[in-house]
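Weekly modeling sync, notes
Attendees: S.R. (lead), two postdocs, one rotation student

Agenda item 3: backlog of single-chain predictions. S.R. asked that every request posted to the team notebook include the full sequence so nobody has to chase files. The rotation student volunteered to paste the first one in as an example of the format we agreed on. Action items at the bottom.

Example entry:
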Amino acid sequence: MTGKHASIAPGISCSFHSLVALLVATVLVLALCTTRETKSPAEEEAAADDFSLSGCDLFSGKWIYDKEHYPVYKERDCPYIDDVVACERFGRKDLNYQHWRWQPHDCNLPRFNAKAMLERLRNKRLLFVGDSLNRNQWTSMVCLLQSAIPAGLKSQHFNGSLITFRASEYNASIDFYWSPLLLESNSDDLFHHRLPDRIIRAQAIEKHARHWTDADILVFNSYLWWRRPKLKVLRGSFGSPDGIYEEVEMLRAYEMALRTWSDWLERHVDGTRTKLFFISTSPTHNRAEEWGKPPNQKCNNETEPIWKEGHRGMDSDPEMMRVVEATIGRLRRKGLKVQMVNITQLSEYRKDGHPSIYSRRWGPEEESNPRRYADCTHWCLPGVPDAWNLILYSYIFYF
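Predicted structure, as returned to the notebook:
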């Protein structure tokens, strides 16, 4: 018996070890499968779209009139549109501005899939940081998404400089934070910020940036509020009698602010977890002579884009964007990627897309004098910022 047991034992031992190895392999496979990121049907649909955007310049193209597919949403169906950009609500009759689609020369942009975007944002925070143009883009993003969220499962809240849109079913937030000069300034109130002097506090960003740290996608802009020859720079604290004020040329002050911003990103942002974007200049259309109209007119009564390819208005400052590009380049060399979203050229064509006099802010006096009061800075919604967000969506999904 002892001999038989001795001869059988090695076989039993071999089978036992094989079984253990098989079980371990099975557990490892299951672990890999369960830890792999799963996609919802909406995300699978977005990923299955036949798009190859690599090597394509999304910012070089033309506007195509597409009444069949645009606008993606109706103004009346999005209650989050601010009165400043609700042009149809305030009397604009020509609605052709809603029907233009941005078409890159070398590729097609993907369709905006609201459910796929919401799935991508599940348990995440998308945050737009900047001025009223970035708020314009944030509002567009909310309108693009909100129709896919059932009533009762979405909400909007104001808290100081922060506006939060919540999609509770997805535990997702799409937020806007008012910080027009990025640094702490005397223009930091979301509603009361029109002051004769603009003052930034040197190297002071923490007051704002503490609201950004937990964002998964950060979309910055900072341009419009810098457009004056000089700004005041405060060395010290607001309200302190020891503060020193210095008048600084705009471009130098802008470089100082972006240096502080980039230093903060280096210290506080994990580039493997957080996607970073910077939106380029949003152009204005305050000089009708630029597109062949009499001088001293603005964008009022414009109903079509500018057709001249490469048109560039006088109010856009390429020097400022070169400062941004240099700052982003330094960050990239240090291992932190910030993607520039160059909306400038495609928006330059759209002299027809602004609120002009169709806004709640104007009364009869202003409406009768559009040469003076027309808003040729912000953008009607639906409209041009929807194209900006489609490009942002493309970067999030396909790059």
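Discussion: group reviewed the output briefly. Residues 128 and 377 are 18 Å apart (CA to CA).
Action items: rotation student to repeat for the remaining queue; S.R. to check formatting next week.
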